[in-house]
Amino acid sequence: MSTVTPSAAPRISSAFALAARQFPRHRAAMAGFAFLVLIALAAILAPWVSPFDPVQIKLSAKLKPPSLEHWLGTDHFGRDIFSRLIWGARTSLSVGILVVAFAFSLGVPLGLTSGYLGGRVDNLLMRMVDAFLTFPPLLLAVALVGLLGPEIQNVMLALGLVQAPVLARIVRGSTLAVREDVYVTAARALGAPTTRIVLAHILRNVVSPIVVQLTVVFSAAVVSEASLSFLGFGTQPPQPSWGRDMSEARRFLGDAPWMFMAPTGIIVLCVLSINFMGDGLRDALDPRAWRTRRRLAEGEG
Protein backbone atom coordinates (compact mmCIF):
# COMPACT_ATOMS: atom_id res chain seq x y z
CA MET A 1 0.00 0.00 0.00
CA SER A 2 1.56 3.25 -1.13
CA THR A 3 1.42 6.44 0.86
CA VAL A 4 0.82 9.78 -0.78
CA THR A 5 2.26 12.90 0.78
CA PRO A 6 -0.43 15.57 1.04
CA SER A 7 0.18 18.44 -1.31
CA ALA A 8 -1.21 21.93 -1.44
CA ALA A 9 -0.42 22.27 -5.13
CA PRO A 10 -3.99 21.96 -6.48
CA ARG A 11 -5.26 24.49 -3.96
CA ILE A 12 -2.41 26.90 -4.72
CA SER A 13 -2.89 26.55 -8.48
CA SER A 14 -6.58 27.27 -8.05
CA ALA A 15 -5.82 30.29 -5.85
CA PHE A 16 -3.45 31.75 -8.43
CA ALA A 17 -5.97 31.11 -11.21
CA LEU A 18 -8.54 33.08 -9.22
CA ALA A 19 -5.97 35.82 -8.57
CA ALA A 20 -5.17 36.03 -12.29
CA ARG A 21 -8.85 36.65 -12.98
CA GLN A 22 -9.23 39.17 -10.18
CA PHE A 23 -6.15 41.31 -10.84
CA PRO A 24 -7.40 42.84 -14.14
CA ARG A 25 -10.51 44.07 -12.29
CA HIS A 26 -8.35 46.38 -10.18
CA ARG A 27 -8.26 49.47 -12.41
CA ALA A 28 -5.50 51.30 -10.55
CA ALA A 29 -3.31 48.18 -10.60
CA MET A 30 -3.84 47.74 -14.34
CA ALA A 31 -3.03 51.41 -14.95
CA GLY A 32 0.16 51.04 -12.92
CA PHE A 33 1.06 47.84 -14.76
CA ALA A 34 0.53 49.51 -18.15
CA PHE A 35 2.70 52.49 -17.14
CA LEU A 36 5.52 50.24 -15.91
CA VAL A 37 5.40 48.20 -19.11
CA LEU A 38 5.65 51.43 -21.10
CA ILE A 39 8.63 52.62 -19.04
CA ALA A 40 10.32 49.22 -19.32
CA LEU A 41 9.86 49.12 -23.10
CA ALA A 42 11.23 52.64 -23.42
CA ALA A 43 14.26 51.65 -21.32
CA ILE A 44 14.90 48.49 -23.35
CA LEU A 45 14.49 50.32 -26.67
CA ALA A 46 16.34 53.45 -25.50
CA PRO A 47 18.92 53.43 -28.34
CA TRP A 48 16.08 53.53 -30.88
CA VAL A 49 13.38 55.64 -29.19
CA SER A 50 15.61 58.26 -27.57
CA PRO A 51 15.57 61.36 -29.82
CA PHE A 52 18.98 62.64 -28.67
CA ASP A 53 22.21 61.39 -27.16
CA PRO A 54 21.63 61.70 -23.37
CA VAL A 55 25.23 62.71 -22.61
CA GLN A 56 25.93 64.96 -25.58
CA ILE A 57 26.73 68.51 -24.43
CA LYS A 58 25.34 71.33 -26.57
CA LEU A 59 25.82 74.64 -24.80
CA SER A 60 24.01 76.55 -27.55
CA ALA A 61 20.79 74.75 -26.51
CA LYS A 62 21.16 74.96 -22.73
CA LEU A 63 18.14 75.68 -20.47
CA LYS A 64 15.63 75.59 -23.31
CA PRO A 65 12.02 75.20 -22.13
CA PRO A 66 9.83 72.33 -23.36
CA SER A 67 9.13 72.56 -27.09
CA LEU A 68 8.33 70.39 -30.10
CA GLU A 69 12.04 69.71 -30.54
CA HIS A 70 12.80 69.06 -26.88
CA TRP A 71 9.59 67.73 -25.30
CA LEU A 72 10.75 68.25 -21.71
CA GLY A 73 13.31 70.96 -22.36
CA THR A 74 17.08 70.86 -21.93
CA ASP A 75 19.40 71.11 -18.93
CA HIS A 76 22.32 73.43 -18.18
CA PHE A 77 24.57 71.47 -20.55
CA GLY A 78 22.03 71.50 -23.39
CA ARG A 79 21.25 67.81 -22.95
CA ASP A 80 17.74 66.66 -23.84
CA ILE A 81 15.86 65.88 -20.61
CA PHE A 82 13.41 63.46 -22.23
CA SER A 83 16.30 61.37 -23.57
CA ARG A 84 17.97 61.38 -20.16
CA LEU A 85 14.75 60.18 -18.53
CA ILE A 86 14.53 57.26 -20.95
CA TRP A 87 18.14 56.22 -20.35
CA GLY A 88 17.81 56.89 -16.63
CA ALA A 89 14.94 54.39 -16.54
CA ARG A 90 17.46 51.70 -17.43
CA THR A 91 19.42 52.44 -14.27
CA SER A 92 16.42 52.73 -11.94
CA LEU A 93 14.58 49.64 -13.20
CA SER A 94 17.77 47.56 -13.34
CA VAL A 95 18.56 48.48 -9.75
CA GLY A 96 14.98 47.70 -8.70
CA ILE A 97 14.95 44.29 -10.37
CA LEU A 98 18.37 43.24 -9.07
CA VAL A 99 17.61 44.46 -5.55
CA VAL A 100 14.38 42.44 -5.59
CA ALA A 101 16.29 39.37 -6.77
CA PHE A 102 18.98 39.84 -4.12
CA ALA A 103 16.47 40.48 -1.31
CA PHE A 104 14.45 37.42 -2.39
CA SER A 105 17.46 35.10 -2.59
CA LEU A 106 18.66 36.19 0.86
CA GLY A 107 15.52 37.13 2.79
CA VAL A 108 13.24 34.24 1.82
CA PRO A 109 15.59 31.37 2.77
CA LEU A 110 16.48 33.21 5.97
CA GLY A 111 12.84 33.69 6.93
CA LEU A 112 11.83 30.14 6.02
CA THR A 113 14.71 28.62 7.99
CA SER A 114 14.08 30.80 11.02
CA GLY A 115 10.31 30.27 11.05
CA TYR A 116 10.32 26.53 10.42
CA LEU A 117 13.18 25.44 12.68
CA GLY A 118 12.44 27.87 15.52
CA GLY A 119 14.29 27.60 18.82
CA ARG A 120 17.91 28.70 18.98
CA VAL A 121 18.24 28.96 15.21
CA ASP A 122 15.27 31.32 15.07
CA ASN A 123 16.63 33.39 17.96
CA LEU A 124 20.10 33.68 16.41
CA LEU A 125 18.90 34.58 12.93
CA MET A 126 16.35 37.12 14.13
CA ARG A 127 18.89 38.86 16.36
CA MET A 128 21.06 39.29 13.27
CA VAL A 129 18.08 40.66 11.38
CA ASP A 130 17.23 43.00 14.25
CA ALA A 131 20.79 44.34 14.18
CA PHE A 132 20.26 45.45 10.59
CA LEU A 133 16.79 46.83 11.29
CA THR A 134 18.05 49.11 14.07
CA PHE A 135 19.62 51.40 11.46
CA PRO A 136 17.54 53.70 9.22
CA PRO A 137 17.53 52.05 5.76
CA LEU A 138 18.87 55.01 3.80
CA LEU A 139 21.56 55.74 6.39
CA LEU A 140 22.70 52.12 6.32
CA ALA A 141 22.76 52.17 2.51
CA VAL A 142 24.83 55.36 2.51
CA ALA A 143 27.28 53.80 4.99
CA LEU A 144 27.64 50.64 2.90
CA VAL A 145 28.09 52.53 -0.37
CA GLY A 146 30.58 54.86 1.29
CA LEU A 147 32.52 51.83 2.50
CA LEU A 148 32.39 49.91 -0.79
CA GLY A 149 32.64 52.86 -3.19
CA PRO A 150 30.10 54.91 -5.21
CA GLU A 151 29.51 52.42 -8.02
CA ILE A 152 26.14 51.19 -9.26
CA GLN A 153 27.01 47.56 -8.40
CA ASN A 154 27.72 48.58 -4.83
CA VAL A 155 24.45 50.50 -4.70
CA MET A 156 22.56 47.35 -5.70
CA LEU A 157 24.41 45.27 -3.09
CA ALA A 158 23.80 47.85 -0.35
CA LEU A 159 20.09 48.21 -1.13
CA GLY A 160 19.68 44.43 -1.29
CA LEU A 161 21.28 44.05 2.14
CA VAL A 162 18.99 46.77 3.50
CA GLN A 163 15.78 45.23 2.13
CA ALA A 164 16.50 41.54 2.79
CA PRO A 165 15.99 41.70 6.61
CA VAL A 166 12.53 43.23 6.20
CA LEU A 167 11.53 40.46 3.80
CA ALA A 168 13.01 37.84 6.13
CA ARG A 169 10.86 39.13 9.00
CA ILE A 170 7.69 38.92 6.91
CA VAL A 171 8.48 35.42 5.62
CA ARG A 172 9.27 34.24 9.15
CA GLY A 173 5.94 35.51 10.47
CA SER A 174 4.02 33.84 7.65
CA THR A 175 5.97 30.60 8.13
CA LEU A 176 5.15 30.52 11.84
CA ALA A 177 1.45 30.81 10.96
CA VAL A 178 1.59 28.03 8.34
CA ARG A 179 3.93 25.43 9.84
CA GLU A 180 1.29 24.08 12.27
CA ASP A 181 -1.42 23.66 9.63
CA VAL A 182 -2.90 20.22 9.11
CA TYR A 183 -1.26 19.48 5.74
CA VAL A 184 2.20 20.37 7.11
CA THR A 185 1.66 18.20 10.18
CA ALA A 186 0.47 15.34 7.99
CA ALA A 187 3.47 15.63 5.67
CA ARG A 188 5.79 15.62 8.68
CA ALA A 189 4.04 12.56 10.15
CA LEU A 190 4.41 10.69 6.86
CA GLY A 191 8.16 11.23 6.95
CA ALA A 192 8.48 13.83 4.19
CA PRO A 193 11.95 15.43 4.08
CA THR A 194 12.29 18.87 5.65
CA THR A 195 13.31 20.40 2.31
CA ARG A 196 10.16 19.04 0.64
CA ILE A 197 7.93 20.29 3.46
CA VAL A 198 9.44 23.77 3.34
CA LEU A 199 9.40 24.12 -0.45
CA ALA A 200 6.31 22.15 -1.44
CA HIS A 201 4.01 23.07 1.43
CA ILE A 202 5.14 26.10 3.38
CA LEU A 203 6.70 28.26 0.63
CA ARG A 204 3.74 27.78 -1.66
CA ASN A 205 1.42 29.02 1.04
CA VAL A 206 3.41 32.13 1.93
CA VAL A 207 3.85 33.30 -1.65
CA SER A 208 1.13 35.95 -1.33
CA PRO A 209 2.84 38.14 1.31
CA ILE A 210 6.18 37.60 -0.42
CA VAL A 211 4.88 38.86 -3.77
CA VAL A 212 3.27 41.91 -2.18
CA GLN A 213 6.40 42.73 -0.17
CA LEU A 214 8.57 42.42 -3.28
CA THR A 215 6.59 45.24 -4.90
CA VAL A 216 7.36 47.34 -1.82
CA VAL A 217 11.04 46.40 -2.13
CA PHE A 218 10.98 47.38 -5.81
CA SER A 219 9.53 50.84 -5.16
CA ALA A 220 11.86 51.37 -2.18
CA ALA A 221 14.85 50.43 -4.35
CA VAL A 222 13.87 52.95 -7.04
CA VAL A 223 13.51 55.74 -4.45
CA SER A 224 16.68 54.75 -2.60
CA GLU A 225 18.75 54.64 -5.79
CA ALA A 226 17.49 58.11 -6.70
CA SER A 227 18.26 59.31 -3.17
CA LEU A 228 21.80 57.92 -3.21
CA SER A 229 22.44 59.42 -6.65
CA PHE A 230 21.01 62.72 -5.42
CA LEU A 231 23.53 62.68 -2.57
CA GLY A 232 26.38 61.72 -4.90
CA PHE A 233 26.76 58.10 -3.72
CA GLY A 234 24.97 56.42 -6.61
CA THR A 235 25.22 56.79 -10.36
CA GLN A 236 28.14 58.99 -11.36
CA PRO A 237 28.12 61.52 -14.22
CA PRO A 238 27.76 61.55 -17.14
CA GLN A 239 25.60 58.41 -16.83
CA PRO A 240 21.91 59.42 -16.82
CA SER A 241 20.14 59.02 -13.48
CA TRP A 242 16.86 60.43 -12.22
CA GLY A 243 18.30 61.22 -8.80
CA ARG A 244 21.48 62.75 -10.21
CA ASP A 245 19.44 64.94 -12.57
CA MET A 246 17.36 66.16 -9.61
CA SER A 247 20.53 67.07 -7.75
CA GLU A 248 21.92 69.06 -10.68
CA ALA A 249 18.57 70.81 -11.19
CA ARG A 250 18.51 72.34 -7.70
CA ARG A 251 20.62 75.30 -8.80
CA PHE A 252 18.22 76.16 -11.60
CA LEU A 253 14.83 75.90 -9.89
CA GLY A 254 14.08 79.56 -10.54
CA ASP A 255 15.33 79.73 -14.14
CA ALA A 256 14.49 76.25 -15.40
CA PRO A 257 11.95 74.48 -13.15
CA TRP A 258 11.34 71.81 -15.81
CA MET A 259 14.79 70.38 -15.05
CA PHE A 260 13.62 69.41 -11.56
CA MET A 261 9.99 68.62 -12.35
CA ALA A 262 10.71 66.03 -15.05
CA PRO A 263 12.80 63.54 -13.01
CA THR A 264 10.71 64.17 -9.90
CA GLY A 265 7.50 63.48 -11.81
CA ILE A 266 8.76 60.25 -13.35
CA ILE A 267 9.94 58.94 -9.97
CA VAL A 268 6.55 59.74 -8.40
CA LEU A 269 4.64 58.08 -11.25
CA CYS A 270 6.89 55.03 -11.22
CA VAL A 271 6.58 54.52 -7.45
CA LEU A 272 2.81 55.08 -7.52
CA SER A 273 2.47 52.53 -10.34
CA ILE A 274 4.44 49.93 -8.38
CA ASN A 275 2.37 50.59 -5.25
CA PHE A 276 -0.88 50.33 -7.22
CA MET A 277 0.30 46.99 -8.55
CA GLY A 278 1.10 45.90 -5.01
CA ASP A 279 -2.42 46.83 -3.89
CA GLY A 280 -3.89 44.92 -6.81
CA LEU A 281 -1.79 41.83 -6.10
CA ARG A 282 -2.66 41.98 -2.40
CA ASP A 283 -6.37 42.08 -3.16
CA ALA A 284 -6.15 39.45 -5.89
CA LEU A 285 -4.14 37.02 -3.77
CA ASP A 286 -6.40 37.49 -0.73
CA PRO A 287 -9.82 35.94 -1.50
CA ARG A 288 -11.37 37.66 1.52
CA ALA A 289 -10.54 41.10 0.10
CA TRP A 290 -12.15 40.68 -3.30
CA ARG A 291 -15.10 38.72 -1.91
CA THR A 292 -15.81 41.58 0.49
CA ARG A 293 -15.48 44.08 -2.34
CA ARG A 294 -17.84 42.02 -4.49
CA ARG A 295 -20.45 41.83 -1.71
CA LEU A 296 -20.23 45.59 -1.22
CA ALA A 297 -20.66 46.14 -4.95
CA GLU A 298 -23.67 43.84 -5.05
CA GLY A 299 -25.13 45.61 -2.02
CA GLU A 300 -24.73 49.02 -3.68
CA GLY A 301 -26.25 47.66 -6.84
Q: How do you describe this structure in short?
A:
This protein has a single domain, classed as MetI-like (MetI-like fold). The chain has 13 helices and no strands.
Helix/strand-derived category reads mainly alpha
Which architecture name does CATH use?
Orthogonal Bundle
- Give me the strand/helix succession: HHHHHHHHHHHHH
CATH domain fold name? MetI-like fold
Number of strands: 0
Number of domains in the coordinates? 1
CATH class: Mainly Alpha
| Terminal-residue CA separation | 55 Å
Low-confidence stretches: 1-10
- Beta content: under 5%
Mean pLDDT across the residues is 84
Can you walk me through this structure?
With 301 residues, the protein is mainly alpha-helical. The chain has a single domain, classed as MetI-like (MetI-like fold, Orthogonal Bundle). It has helices at residues 9-22, 27-44, 46-49, 81-117, 119-133, 137-148, 152-178, 182-189, 194-205, 207-231, 242-249, 258-285, 287-300. The model is unreliable at 1-10 (pLDDT under 50).
